[in-house]
């Protein structure tokens, strides 16, 4: 293979020419438009090399504190997020070009990165029909079953709590999409989480220079040093998705496959118009979206329970009043109207430390626009600064504290209101309702049945809980049954759930 040094020598004249033209263009550009305060950076390259590879939330929060409500790219308050990404969503919801993560790694097929166009709308409609709130009756039996299995895993293997969270979230969506359950530490499940995390790693701002400067994709392919890595990730990701589809097709041939989304989807006219990559990435996007966010959010709330135990006592007062103070029965779906404190806990979990998208997800303006004296050109990339907003005292009282009471305002059941955990505008996570339901039933039952404590000498630093875990626990925590009666309840109510196979 060509060495990086040879590649750099070969492309240096091209880069110099490109950068000279870019500098001239920027001078002309700045004469026409008025932009918000810009963070000092390097000539030409701007801030490309200042963004940390991981834990970007605290870094972006510091910038927001220093530069105000709008900085170049970042929107640092709920006010401007609502004004631009929601009220002007029609022109603020497209996506910039990502030659590495969308082009090479996803073959232009990952819906989360597809620009706002007719193709995006078709795919969004397909996913909405599966994951919308109208489908909650489809998911509830699976969430009930899998959350009982989750309690069993916590009781029997408390040192694998984080893996149990992943199995739970994955098994719910796998049951709906492919009609099969997942088991703890299943190799296929582990590999799915690996590919999701590889995508997140590569999508981090500054990770791939070609995603920051798409013109570099015009280099001869032999000089694109990022391409081999992207191709390897693509092949691995595609194989993970393809394996599930092939297994499903084998079960269909054998007559053992139960009806599910995949069996219905494979018979639709829409799929006949799709290429193989697009078909596979529809399945894969559903699996990733349904698995990763829920497991991360459950872990966040557990960290909140261990570091701010005062709210757990109040949550249990609500749970005990409904389900019994002596482990009488597990919380059920029909209890939800009476368990408003648990709904507030879930909303606080989505707000507290927004680790799934610490600095939001970039969107692109599709035509020139003006806002509060600023003039933005088409092509400007915006993102909501999730970490800065969530931890701003201007937005929330005592923002670093896990305090569900902030959401006890009569809108506990409006899962999108009061935080940006699922994103804003037309790019709001299509599976937000399923994700919220996943977390609600799991947390109601976990808080009712288990204690979560910090381990002496190993305090949880909630500001540095990693987004990317590499199949390891996000933090260390002691998990124990709340009382012997609660352990007995789990053995009585959950043993059968572990035995169910399909």
Automatic annotation (TrEMBL):
Residue ranges crossing the lipid bilayer per the database entry: 6-24
Cofactor section: heme
SUPFAM superfamilies: Cytochrome P450
Coiled-coil spans in chain: 231-258
Pfam families (alphabetical): p450
Molecular-function GO term, any one: oxidoreductase activity, acting on paired donors, with incorporation or reduction of molecular oxygen
Cited CDD domains: CYP64-like
Entry superkingdom: Eukaryota
PANTHER family reported in the protein's UniProt record: P450, PUTATIVE (EUROFUNG)-RELATED, P450, PUTATIVE (EUROFUNG)-RELATED-RELATED
The name this protein goes by in its record: Cytochrome P450
Organism of origin: Lophiostoma macrostomum CBS 122681
